[in-house]
Amino acid sequence: MKKNKAAHHGGAWKVAYADFVTAMMALFMVLWISAQDQEILLATSQYFQSPFNTPLDATSGILPYNSNATPTTVNPESSNGKDQASNALQNIDREFMNSLAQEFYKLLNLEKTDEEAPLLVEVTSDGLRVTLFDRPNRPLFALDSTEFTEWGQFAMQNLAWVIDRNGFCAVVEGHTRTEKGKLVNSDIEWELSTAQANAVRKTLTHYAVDPSRFLRISGYGAREPLLNKKPEDYANQRIVISLSLRKEDATPKP
Questions:
Q1: Given CA atoms 176, 180, 186, 192 in this order, what sign does their dihedral have?
Q2: Model pTM above 0.85
Q3: Which of 84, 117, 182, 227 is the 20 to 30 A CA-CA neighbour of 31?
Q4: How far apart are CA 50 and CA 232, in angstroms?
């Protein structure tokens, strides 16, 4: 009789055991995820930041969705799994680059929608492309020289801060317009575009950008006018700075 009474009151341990098993399974999952590659960790993190996306959305989760595809199992260690995780990382980087471009406009008190703005920031597959126009109403340099105007110095200071803070590497290109009636291959245009590109490098270095961050300095003269612009158009007088991140040394500063 005592045995039967004990049997009726012995169910509480099952609840405790179920909680223990659940906790152990959660611990196992955390340890397994922590042992994966950095790319898988970031892709998993991105997924759990927005876990309620519909599976019909091709951009949700870690893996793309195809309603006509045959279900398959993806091994994270396979090259296909790493490629898909890498795509998710590219989406994260693009969002960051877009926010960084917006931040740069704010630093310079400019509106992105202004077509006559002296600055254009574009998001590329490698990072950012910053175009600084040497416009008559807001020149970057003193006329036909490598001396920065007050606006030019202000732009360089803020650009240096962005490069240094985010660990960017830079390629600097100088472009000039050609004066009407003059040959495009003028020595003055080649020398001026190269000298202005080098002046950008020197000034950014002065404002604390590490010299090793510069990958290339080039001057194109008037050989590459903007699309749908005449060679003598003032918009062609510009500096183009391509910013990219290199995995081995591109760690953004806090």
A1: negative
A2: no
A3: 84
A4: 50
